[in-house]
Design brief:
Chain lengths: 129, 140
Amino acid sequence: MLNPDSVGRTFPGSDAVTVTQSQIDAFAAVVGQSDTSVAPPTFAIRITLDQSQAILSNPEIGLDWTRVVHGDQRFEIHTPIKAGDTFRCSSTIENYKVAAGNEIVTVRSDLHKGGALAVATWSTLVVRA
Amino acid sequence: MVDFSGARMIEVGSVLPTQVFTLDRALLKAYADASGDQNPIHQNEEFAVSVGLPNVIAHGMLTMALVGKYVTDWAGGAAQVHEFSARFIKPVIVPANENVDLTISATIASIEDGKIKLDIIATSAGVKVLGMAKAVVTKK
């Protein structure tokens, strides 16, 4: 179970992450996007899901990632992602509830580029009972 | 004023052309590698069944990425997409050696200061797989 003290708190991600052209190319190739000067709109998930997994799996927070399914996802893209961009990530546990034994956690993860918010993401994760 | 861009009108209620994407196990593997999400429910049938799924299922985020491509194409580039959201209501089931459809259409829900809000419908094998799928774009 999630530590209730973690709800509402913001956690910094690990080290800064730099996006490479080959990462964008691989992601774009899967969906058939030929212009890779800008990353596909959902590319941020490649960074934020890793970061929120690392944060939420921390024993102090205690989410059981092995039983997580993805409930919903939202992106607000203020600045499109390009190769060479370096981001710092922070994740905030915005909401938490238990319904029919399932834990439902909403995590907001922000990608900051040089101090400005580039992409905000919200993931609702369901930890199945 | 009505904006004529291409053959179709861009006004509230306009319906965008339907596009069909094809998914197979190879695409799921490619998405796993490109996204870093190597959860075995998207690649290993035995594992998927052992956790109560009918078969291997596509990553919800792969479904969303393909819808993102649909939206990107219509808007005229990935940089035109400002907001994008969806709920994963049913899995896209991908049996071995089969091609599975993801059929996408959209309707213009609102236009405000050049920002076009799309309501998107995505189905696979006739079943709606995304709920509340929406995007906000500016069209190039």
